[in-house]
């Protein structure tokens, strides 16, 4: 499956069929975009798992050191990390059988994108999941 950024039908299907989102690079600081987007996703009904090995808890919720440590299947892996980290994040997303890899604005890595697509993941790179959700469902 190609990078489906811009395919509104496919994006609506992903949002509608997904329940659990892992936010990789979730910050405990409320001023950070990762924190704000995660709170938005929770507010619209998704179960959000923060992934950040440097943080133990965020707002009383356990924070996981890796995607593999999350105790249930993940539908969307939403990434707030520098593009240099994407190859290893893609490996983990494939290992946990996530359906979708979604990277935030300005996060793009062509080799990681190719690997994720070849593994059968839905791929959206360089797009804000909150902005896209609000655009499609507001």
TrEMBL record:
TM regions (residue ranges): none
InterPro entries cross-referenced by the UniProt entry: CoA-bd, NAD(P)-bd_dom_sf
Superkingdom, taxonomy of origin: Bacteria
Entry-linked Pfam families: CoA_binding_2
Domain CoA-binding residue range list: 15-107
Name this polypeptide is given: CoA-binding protein
Organism: Microcystis flos-aquae FACHB-1344
